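#onboarding

Welcome to the new folks! Below is a worked example of what a typical request in this channel looks like: someone posts a single protein sequence, and someone else replies with the predicted structure as tokens. Don't worry about understanding the tokens yet, we'll cover that in week two.

Example request:
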Amino acid sequence: MSKDSVKFKVDDRVLVKRPLSEKGRTIYPGWTLEMDKYDGKVGVVNHIRSDGLLDISFGDRLDYTYLPAWVDKVDEVKEVDPYLKDQHEPGAKLDAGKNRLGLVLLGFPRALQAVSEVGTYGAKKYTEGGWEKVPNGQQRYTDALLRHLLKEATGEELDPETEFLHAAHTAWNALARLELILRGKIN
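Example response:
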């Protein structure tokens, strides 16, 4: 394993940087034109080969193999435009490697609508925000999540009380549980 690859570990987020010669053409064997579309993009290290090469995934295809010199760890990268534009160039946006909330918020509109219906029902039945103060909430929301999963697994699609999908109740309980876990780590 090369000494350069030691600074990386599996699940590291990395920013790809295209190797250039003086004339702007690729000078390294192994870099392909297909890899150009990931130049300036953030991927995840999935495997470190015994020869030190990094297998990196971009979520839309199989892994590509990169030399460690062709990537930087995202936490070591200062703010960068994903298209490597200078920050003062028109159209630059320094957001490479930042959380892309639209992938969830816009990618699951029906699911999030269903979960928000469960949350609204709960706020009317109990109190708005009352779920945050439930004693031993993390365990109780885990149990509720599992109850809804089991009901769905036995063929019951809708919760008889709310007439919402058990899957929506499961997702709401998973979010409540996760929120409490994350808040506990902060406090």
